[in-house]
Amino acid sequence: MKNLTLDITKAFNFVSKDEYNALQTKALESNAALYDKNLPGNDFLGWVDVKNIISEEELSEIEKKAAQLREKIEVLVVIGIGGSYLGAKAVIEALSNSFAQMNVKKGNPIVLFAGQNIGEDYISELMDAIADKSYALCVISKSGTTTEPAIAFRLLKAKIEEKYGKKEAADRIVAITDKSRGALRTLANSEGYKTFVIGDSVGGRFSVLTPVGLFPIAVAGFDIRQLLQGAYSVEEMTQKGKSFEENISAHYAVVRNLLYKKYSTEILVNFHPKLHYFSEWWKQLYGESEGKDGKGIFPASVDFTSDLHSMGQYIQEGVRLMYETVISIAEPDKKVEIPSDAQNLDQLNFLAGKRVDFVNKQAELGTQLAHLDGGVPQIRIEIPKLNEYYLGQMIYFFEKACGISGYILGVNPFNQPGVEAYKKNMFALLDKPGYEDASKAIRERLAK
Ligand code: PA5
User: 85 and 151: one domain?
Assistant: First the structure.
């Protein structure tokens, strides 16, 4: 079986080999700390030993409930935000037919998302769109108290109970939450929902290979065992005790920390629109893990070639603040050849008989050369195909690299204290009980 490959040779025009060699020991120590649990954030390392992230019993339960729902629903609405949303969205989007919404039927349901925003039009239009469909809900919240999904679930719970009655609705609701704490656990227990547990030792952004990601992905019809197999294979390559040469996550962690000395932004680039949400997942992973204590590479993303017609100008000639990490897919699933045309008015006959992907690959190479000439260092990741196994490899590759990179940077990659600031202000503005002093203070501040 082939593996994900990482090419950092194009970064060596911008960072020195000596610096790279010098950081290898630190990277291996950081990797070891993820296993030894002796650095900050050590309570949240349950994802590292990915072979034990989920039991066989729980995996079978997930597959069983997913199969039961797949037979009777056309739509699953997954309610969650941040780490309780982006992993499932990324994998489902990457593996689904781009036009799956045009072929909705029982046995082949689509997955929609709610509670990942507070857009009133969004939730209203979603409720209208699913009203005459057969649907189920999967509500995911580790804390069980996050405002955005809690509002969406309150609204959708009322709708599903109105449509099916309380008993059938309860059979169509799955809750994924803490094993004993939080409002969602209390509700799930009292209403008799099927539940899956988010373990204490896995933070939201590292939870895609737990029921948080696996259940929605299974309902969408994808092979969650292959996803896990891919992750296992990278864990094996990057285990404590492996050499630096073998540990591809350590290579990425080292090179990005060296680039960070001159470049503040990393752009994750894809040439396949199905990877758009994979980039969104990656942005949360790195943004929440490293952006703290006044430090951290800013994670950005683009979808090429679309964004070459928008962001391309800036990347080529704007402020030199970024390097790129390109995800390349060696072989797409489908084959489409460009036909010959008798008139050739568009002058494209030189491409007749060539695959669309051949053109895409030349765009990729041309962009790489142009951006290197423009002073943009490049890291390249290649996967043989976009399937469950290689997505599993990429997920674990980036998670492990994130842990190593955060420790090299000198931050705790597993907390997110900054996420609370907006919540405190929002609750004060909403006059949430318990926030009386904060409400008074914020009103005085706004009146000035
Ligand atoms: O990574 C994180 O911890 C966050 O993005 C959370 O996943 C997000 O805030 C949702 O939290 P919860 O699952 O508790 O509703």
Answer: yes
- Counting ligand 1 atoms within 8 A of each CB, the residue from 47, 84, 283 with the most, and so the one to mutate, is 84
Per-residue pLDDT at 278: 98
List 7's β-bridge partners, or say none. Answer: 380
Domain range for residue 392? 5-40+228-409
Tokens representing 45 are 């390392």
Q: What positions carry a catalytic annotation?
A: 288, 309, 423
Edge-to-edge strand list for the sheet holding 378-383: 5-7, 378-383, 322-329, 265-270, 298-303
Q: Which regions of 61-193 does DSSP assign to beta strands (E)?
A: 75-79, 110-114, 135-141, 173-177
Structure tokens at 125: 């239009």
Residue 66 is assigned to a structural domain of this protein: yes
Nearest CA to ligand 1 atom 8: 82
Give SS3 for 224. Answer: helix
Q: Which of 140, 143, 176 has most ligand 1 atoms within 8 Å of CB, for mutation?
A: 143
pLDDT digit string (tens) for 391-435? Answer: 999 999 999 999 999 999 999 999 999 998 999 999 999 999 999
Cα separation, 207 vs 210, in Å, equals: 5
Q: How far, in Å, is the centroid of ligand 1 from the Cα of 244?
A: 33
Is the separation of the CB atoms in 15 and 252 below 8 Å?
A: no
Is 10 a domain residue? yes
Q: Give the model confidence (pLDDT) of 143-200 as tens digits.
A: 888 999 999 999 999 999 999 999 999 999 999 999 999 999 999 999 999 999 999 9
- Please check whether residues 114 and 186 belong to one and the same domain: yes
Which domain CATH number covers 293? 3.40.50.10490
Q: In terms of domains, do 222 and 237 share one? A: no
Q: Is ligand 1 within 6 A of the CB of residue 377?
A: no
